[in-house]
Write a structure and sequence with these properties.
The complex is a heterodimer of chains A (736) and B (199). Chain A has three domains: 2-82 and 92-348, no CATH class; 492-536 and 686-735; 546-677. Chain A contains 25 helices and 16 strands. In chain A, helix 6 (156-194) runs antiparallel to helix 7 (198-210). Chain B is α+β, with helices and mostly antiparallel strands and 199 residues long. Chain B has helices at residues 2-32, 40-43, 72-75, 118-124, and strands at 64-66, 76-80, 90-101, 108-116, 127-133, 136-143, 147-155, 165-172, 176-177, 184-185, 188-196. The N and C termini of chain B lie far apart (99 Å). Classes of the chains: A alpha+beta (736), B alpha+beta (199). Chains A and B meet through helix 2, helix 12, helix 22, strand 8 and helix 23 of A and helix 1 and helix 2 of B.
C-alpha cells in the first residue's frame, strides 16, 4: 500500500515545490494576475526554476532523498511560511453550462489518465532513455556524462523527473508529466477567459485534454505535453504584456522560453515566437525597446546556457547531437546526424499533405499518435483571422508547429495544438449549440474503445482498460511490465541476475534502460555502437567485407611523413580503410610504437586502420568529406615504395599521396594505382568479437529475425560466443 | 546598476562552479573509459596489433540442404519461412526463392522434396510447380493430388558459371489464401539444392 502511494506522494512534493517557488517568484516580481492565472504560472515558472535548481544539485552530486525533502520544506516556507498577501485581479465571469458539461465528459478521461500515469511506466521512450538516464543520475547521486544521441539532448523536465524518481521511482516521474497535462487546459481556459472568449476556451481546453495523443503522452514520462504547456505559457505572457504593458511579465516569459529550450531543443520556438510581440511593440513605438529585450533575453538565457555548457563540456559540442561537422567530437558523427535527420524528416514516408493531415488527426498511421477527428475542422480556425487574438493564436500555431519540418512525428506538432484549438474554437464558439456539440463529439470520438475502430492499429494510444490493480500494486509490477514491454523487459531482468555488475552488452534489441542496472544501449545511440555494429555485420554482409586492395606504388623514397588523401569524393561517399600497410620492396614495414597517426575528419577512429584487425575500419564518418586524409609520421626517416589499403569493394581508388622527406614539408607523389580483389579474409567473426571485447563489451543480445542472428546460433564457436540465456526470441551470449 | 552587477557577478560565480563541477566529472569519466574513442592522444598512437587471422571460419553451407538446417535461413531470398518447423520443414509463400552455394558447375542437378498439404489442395485443386535457376526456366511439375513429391532436373553448366550462388525460384500456379488474415501459403519444403549427377 505504502509502495503504491509513494509515487503519488513524490509527485505531489515536486508539484508543491514548483508551486511554492513559482508563487514566491511571481510575488517578488510584483506581477498581478487573477488567482487562476497566478496558480498556473506559479507552477510553470516554478517548474523551470526547480529544474534549474536540481541541475545545479545534480552537478554538485547532491542527489539524495534528504536533500529533496529539505528543498521542498525550504521552498514551502519561502512561499507560504510567512504571512504575505498576494493581490489578485478579479477574473471575468465564466459560462456555467459549458463548464459543467465539460467536467462531466472529462471525468472518465481523468480517471483513465490518472491511473495510467500512476501505474508502472512502460512507454517506449519513457522506459528507455527519459528514465534510463534519470536512473543513472539517481544511482550516481548526480550528473554524469552520458555521451549518447539522447543523452546530449537538454534534460529540463528530466531534472523534475529526477526529483520525483529519487523519492518515488518511475511512476512518480510520469505523474509529474501528468501534472502538466492537468495544467495545460487550465492555462488555455484562463487565457480565453481573460481575453473575452471563455466559451471557446472551454471547448479548446477540452479538445486538447481529450486528444488521444495528449492523453497518452501526458501520462508517460515524456516531455511533449510539458513543452506544449510551457510554450503556450510564453504565448500567454507575451499577450498579457502586449495588453497590460507590465514589462515585468517578460521575466516569467523569458524563464518559460528558456525552460522550453531546456525541455527539448525544439522548444526554441517559444523564444522565436516572442520576437513577434516584441517586434510589434517596437514597430508601433518606432524605437528599439532595449529594456524589454534585455529582460526577456536575460531570463531566457539563464535557463538555456546551462544546457549548452553541459554539452560543451561533456560532448565538445554545445548543441550536440547536432552540428557535429562544426563541432567534431567522438560521440556523434556528421554521417549519423545526417542520416538521423533525414530519417526523422521523412518519418511518415510521405509528403502528401492530405495523407499527413489525416494521419495527424484521425489515423495516427506512421506518425505515432493522433489528435482526434475533431481537429479535421482545424482549417476553420482561419475564420478567427477576423479578430486580433485569432491572428495571434494562428501565428503562434504556425511558429510552434515549425518543428514538424524536422520530424514528422505527431509529437512535434503538439506545441501548436493549444493555440490552434483556441483559434478553431474562437471561430465557431458563437454559433448556437456548437460548443456543447463539439465537446460531446470530442469525448465520444476520443474514448479509446472508439478510437480503436478508426485509428491505425499500431499507432500510439491508450486502451480503455484502466490499470487499477497495477497502480495499487495489487498486480505484480514485473507481470504488468512484461505484458506491456515484452521480452526486452525479461531479458533486462536476466541480465541483471546473470551478468556481473559493470557488464556492457552489445544489443540492437535492448532491455529498457530504466529497468536494468547494466549498460545495454541500442547500437544506434552512440558512435561506438555504430562502429561495433559495422564490425559485427562485416563477417556476414558482402558489401562490408574487406575484399579490395588498393596499391599505391611510387619510386622508392625516404620519408618522415606520409599522407593519403581522397581529394574529390562523391557527395554520398564515406571513405573507409580497414587496414593501411606500408611496404618497401614488397615487404611490409612493421608498425612501430613511435609512429604517430592522424586522420581528418574523425581522427579518433584512425587506429582502426592500423590494428591488424580486418573487421574494424577507419571512416571519415562524413558524407563527401573533400580532402579527407589519413597520415603517418615516422619520427625517423623511413624508406618505402608502396602503400596498400584494404577495404570493402565499394571504396574509391581515386586517391592522392604526399610524402615529406623533412618532418614539416610534404611533396605530392605521382603513384601508380591498382586495385585487386582478394578472397574474403579468414576469421572475421572472431575478429569482430575481439573488437567488441577491446571496447569493453562482455555480452551480446541477439533477437530472432534480426540481421545474422542465425549465424550467431549456427557458428557460435567461430564467433567466440556462448549462449547464456534465452527468452521470447532474445538470446544472451557471453563473449568468450 | 549595483543590483544588476550583483546579479551578473553571482550568476557568473554559480556558472563557474557548475562548469568546474562538470569538468571534474567529465575528466573522471574519460579516465575510466580509456578503451572508448575519447582520447585523442591515444588515437594518434599505433594501437596494439591483433593476431591475424584471429580464428577459423565455418565451412560454407552445402549445395543441398535439409530445411531444418539453421544455415538455410541465411540463404533464403524471399517467401520461405525464416524458422524451421516440426521435424525440419518450412512453409513457402507466394514466390519462394533461395540461393544455393555452387560447389561445381559440371553435371549438376537441382532436386527438391516438397509436399502439398491436403487442406491447401482442397481449395486449390491440382497445382503446377514452375522452377527456374538464375532466371532460366528449369521445368514444371504437376501435382495432381496432395502428398509428398520429388522434383529433379539437370542444370546446364553455363547457367551456373561466374557465380558463387545459384538463385532458385520455385512457385506454384495456385496458392491457398487464409480467409482470416489473407496470408497465402504454397507448399511445404523438406530439402532442396544442387547435386552432382555423378553421386
Amino acid at each position: 500500500m505504502l509502495a503504491a502511494l509513494s509515487p503519488l506522494f513524490s509527485a505531489c512534493l515536486v508539484v508543491l515545490s514548483c508551486l511554492a517557488l513559482g508563487t514566491a517568484l511571481l510575488r517578488r516580481l510584483g506581477i498581478t494576475l487573477t488567482r487562476a492565472e497566478n496558480r498556473v504560472f506559479a507552477f510553470l515558472t516554478g517548474a523551470a526554476c526547480v529544474s534549474l535548481l536540481i541541475l545545479g544539485l545534480a552537478t554538485l552530486q547532491l542527489i539524495y532523498k534528504p536533500v529533496f525533502y529539505t528543498l521542498t520544506a525550504t521552498l514551502l516556507w519561502i512561499a507560504w511560511g510567512r504571512k504575505r498577501e498576494t493581490e489578485y485581479e478579479t477574473p471575468r465571469p465564466v459560462p456555467r453550462l459549458p463548464i459543467k458539461l465539460s467536467l462531466c465528459v472529462v471525468l472518465p478521461f481523468l480517471v483513465l489518465y490518472f491511473f495510467n500515469a500512476w501505474a508502472p511506466e512502460y512507454s517506449p521512450d519513457g522506459s528507455t532513455y527519459h528514465l534510463g538516464y534519470v536512473l543513472l543520475f539517481a544511482r550516481h547521486h548526480g550528473l554524469i556524462p552520458i555521451r549518447t544521441l539522447y543523452g546530449a539532448l537538454p534534460e529540463g523536465l528530466e531534472m523534475l523527473f529526477l526529483f520525483a524518481f529519487t523519492l518515488g521511482r518511475h511512476s512518480a516521474a510520469a505523474l509529474v508529466h501528468f501534472s502538466f497535462l492537468l495544467a495545460l487546459p487550465f492555462l488555455m481556459f484562463s487565457y480565453a477567459r481573460r481575453f473575452g472568449f471563455p466559451r471557446a476556451g472551454v471547448l479548446a481546453a477540452v479538445m486538447v485534454f481529450l486528444s488521444p495523443l495528449f492523453g497518452q503522452d501526458g501520462v508517460s514520462a515524456y516531455n511533449d505535453v510539458a513543452l506544449a504547456a510551457v510554450t503556450f505559457g510564453v504565448f500567454y505572457l507575451m499577450e498579457l504584456w502586449l495588453e497590460t504593458n507590465q514589462d515585468r511579465l517578460l521575466i516569467p516569459a523569458g524563464i518559460l522560453a528558456g525552460f522550453a529550450f531546456g525541455i527539448k531543443y525544439t522548444g526554441f520556438i517559444a523564444a522565436l515566437y516572442a520576437v513577434a510581440p516584441l517586434a510589434i511593440r517596437m514597430w508601433r513605438r518606432r524605437r528599439v525597446l532595449w529594456q524589454p529585450i534585455v529582460m526577456f533575453s536575460a531570463a531566457c538565457l539563464v535557463f538555456v546556457i546551462p544546457w549548452l555548457v553541459k554539452n560543451a563540456v561533456y560532448m565538445h559540442n554545445p548543441v550536440a547531437p547536432f552540428l557535429n561537422s562544426v563541432f567534431p567530437n567522438p560521440w556523434v558523427s556528421p554521417r549519423f546526424e545526417q542520416l538521423y535527420r533525414q530519417n526523422m524528416a521523412t518519418y511518415a514516408g510521405t509528403n502528401n499533405l492530405v495523407v499527413l493531415f489525416l494521419s495527424f488527426t484521425v489515423t495516427g498511421a506512421k506518425v505515432i499518435g493522433f489528435f482526434g477527428p475533431l481537429f479535421v475542422l482545424a482549417p476553420l480556425g482561419l475564420l478567427s483571422l477576423r479578430t486580433r487574438q485569432g491572428r495571434h493564436l494562428l501565428l503562434a500555431a504556425v511558429v510552434f508547429g515549425l518543428p514538424i519540418l524536422s520530424n514528422q512525428g505527431s509529437r512535434f506538432l503538439m506545441a501548436s495544438l493549444p493555440p490552434l484549438a483556441l483559434a478553431l474554437a474562437l471561430a465557431v464558439a458563437n454559433t448556437q449549440f456548437v460548443v456543447p456539440t463539439l465537446i460531446v463529439l470530442q469525448a465520444l470520438t476520443c474514448w479509446p474503445d472508439v478510437t480503436a475502430m478508426y485509428a491505425d492499429q499500431y499507432t500510439w494510444r491508450l486502451t480503455s482498460k484502466i490499470p487499477f490493480a497495477a497502480a495499487w500494486h495489487r498486480r505484480r509490477t514485473d507481470g504488468y511490465l512484461h505484458d506491456r514491454i515484452g521480452p526486452t523487459y525479461d531479458i533486462g531482468k536476466i541480465i541483471d541476475a546473470q551478468t556481473p555488475p559493470g557488464s556492457k552488452i552489445y544489443c540492437r534489441a535492448c532491455p529498457p534502460e530504466a529497468y536494468t542496472a547494466r549498460e545495454a544501449l541500442p547500437t544506434y545511440e552512440t558512435l561506438l555502437g555504430n562502429l561495433m555494429e559495422d564490425m559485427v555485420f562485416t563477417p556476414n554482409e558482402p558489401n562490408r567485407k574487406p575484399t579490395k586492395v588498393i596499391t599505391l606504388g611510387f619510386p622508392r623514397i625516404t620519408a618522415y611523413r606520409l599522407r593519403i588523401s581522397n581529394p574529390h569524393p562523391r557527395a554520398d561517399e564515406v571513405w573507409q580503410i580497414n587496414e593501411l600497410r606500408i611496404l618497401n620492396a614488397g615487404i611490409e614495414i612493421p608498425r612501430a610504437p613511435d609512429w604517430r597517426i592522424d586522420a581528418a575528419p574523425d581522427p579518433w577512429e584512425a587506429p582502426l586502420a592500423f590494428d591488424n584487425n580486418l573487421a574494424s575500419r577507419w571512416s571519415t564518418e562524413q558524407f563527401g568529406a573533400a580532402g579527407a586524409y589519413i597520415e603517418i609520421v615516422f619520427r625517423q626517416p623511413t624508406t618505402l615504395d608502396e602503400v596498400t589499403l584494404q577495404s570493402s569493394s565499394d571504396q574509391t581508388a581515386q586517391l592522392t599521396i604526399q610524402a615529406g622527406a623533412q618532418p614539416d614539408k610534404m611533396v605530392q607523389l605521382n603513384p601508380s594505382i591498382r586495385s585487386s580483389v582478394v578472397p574474403v579474409p579468414v576469421g572475421l567473426r572472431r575478429a569482430a568479437t575481439l573488437m567488441l571485447k577491446t571496447y569493453g563489451y562482455n555480452y551480446l543480445i541477439a533477437a530472432d529475425g534480426d540481421y545474422f542472428t542465425n549465424d550467431y546460433a549456427a557458428n557460435a564457436a567461430y564467433w567466440g560466443i556462448r549462449p547464456v540465456a534465452s527468452t521470447g526470441g532474445l538470446t544472451l551470449y557471453r563473449l568468450e | 546598476m549595483k543590483k544588476s552587477l550583483k546579479w551578473v557577478l553571482s550568476s557568473g560565480l554559480v556558472l563557474a562552479a557548475v562548469v568546474f563541477a562538470m569538468r571534474q566529472q567529465n575528466a573522471l569519466d574519460l579516465a575510466n573509459k580509456s578503451s572508448s574513442f575519447t582520447d585523442l592522444a591515444a588515437a594518434h598512437r599505433i594501437p596494439s596489433q591483433d593476431i591475424n587471422p584471429p580464428g577459423k571460419d565455418p565451412e560454407p553451407p552445402p549445395s543441398f540442404l535439409e530445411m531444418g538446417d539453421p544455415r538455410v535461413t541465411a540463404l533464403i531470398v524471399r517467401d520461405i519461412g525464416r524458422t524451421p518447423e516440426g521435424m525440419g520443414w518450412r512453409w513457402t509463400f507466394s514466390k519462394p526463392a533461395m540461393k544455393f552455394p555452387v560447389a561445381g558447375i559440371k553435371d549438376q542437378r537441382f532436386a527438391m522434396d516438397f509436399s502439398i498439404v491436403e487442406t491447401v489442395f482442397r481449395t486449390t485443386g491440382p497445382v503446377t510447380l514452375s522452377a527456374s535457376i538464375n532466371g532460366h526456366a528449369l521445368g514444371t511439375f504437376r501435382c495432381a493430388h496432395p502428398g509428398d513429391f520429388h522434383f529433379e532436373a539437370a542444370v546446364p553448366d553455363e547457367w551456373l558459371k561466374g557465380s558463387d550462388f545459384a538463385l532458385v525460384e520455385a512457385s506454384l500456379d495456385k496458392l491457398w489464401t487464409s480467409p482470416s488474415d489473407g496470408a497465402q501459403l504454397g507448399y511445404i519444403l523438406f530439402r532442396a539444392g544442387l547435386r552432382s549427377s555423378s553421386k
